[in-house]
Predict the 3D structure of the following.
Amino acid sequence: MIELVDTLPDINVQPAEYKRLLGYPRDRVLDGRARELAEWARGWYAKNGKPWVYAREAQTVQLTNGSILIDGVTFASPKLQKMLHEAEAHGAILAAVSAGPELEAESQRLWLEEKPDEYFFLEIFGSAVVEHLMTMTGARLCAWAESRKMAVLPHYSPGYPEWEIDQQPRLLELLNRTAQQPLPGKVDVLESGMLKPKKSLIAVFGLTNHTDRVRKLTDLVACENCSFGSCQYRRVPYRRAPEFSKTESPSLQEELAIENAAGEPVKIATLTRDAKYAVNARALDRWAAERLTIATNDDGTIDAVFKYEGSTCSNMGRTIHFVYRLKLGRRDEGYPIREITCGPAPGDEGHRFMCRYMTNAEHLMVAIDHEKPLLGQSLNDVLAWQRPAMSPSCYCEPSSRKHKWGLVLETIHYALVKRETEIANLATTMVESK
Ligand code: SF4
């Protein structure tokens, strides 16, 4: 039996998913006040949210006349029953995820303070976190199941069509009763059947050895509704993927689907896992957590933003803030660097006190803007890229700027390797007993 407990789950909600839940059209670029509020809600949650994830394998699953028996508890859901029956499911995973109570308390406070905009964006971000947590739980289960020649069915919850919400207390009670470890956070069911904290979700994932059946019956394939862009096991494209990715590179999309549908492994160009970085691992770990934001888009491309803080060497050591923005291609392409920019952070004044800025501002800023190291190459190439080992913390000299680009690219490399390793080593994050 597997059991998964995670109190530090990934909360990197994909911008496209957040935008969808906010109700904006797919091609709308958030700007102005909307962008400010969206970024504020994401930042507030990163600082204050306490999300958690729990999942465990049920010991027994039986389908009887009109009901589903999980560990001896009866549930009635014609739709879930049909799914389990058609997939010849032999087991199930019970899962619970929550964005935590902090977000709910804050959004109530905002409402009482008559800040409806902030309230709305934070509430929706909470919903996006819950969706993301369940998606990523599904992704971890998929990786675990694939390595055992099994498949995970789409998750299903009380309150979904053909599963009455009044069965929610029963499922929660089962989750609490049979867990080897307690749920990482408190969840209650209100009389209405709703969960408290309301940004929580409990669900059942069916489990089958008949992977061929899952491929043939689209209803049984979770991938169509799964936004996990960098999944290496995807069987069918995500149905909400942006249109441009379907028209711009149809062959790649189809190629991925065909390879998977044929049951053959998708060719993956991975990053070097045991890389020898120029920067020490503790610094990379800290920067990855504190300065770097990585978002995976629907088409599998990656947006990375790194916030650098340094100081001028003279003029009383003024603090300078620079922002690095990169767009990387998909994992299976080897994360090619497609776009790369660096410039002072909005509102930064410190850079105006750098020596070279004071002597020839335009020359310095043009040079910073034009330098795009490793553009078009794989992110992995940073490991062999020759650059100065040390430099002052300003941007005056090309060698200083090259050194900083090295720090940024290594941090992104480190963070992506860590993410891939976490997914690949899923088995080690689960407590297994049998
Ligand atoms: S894309 Fe499919 S295989 Fe991959 S995590 Fe999502 S549901 Fe699982």
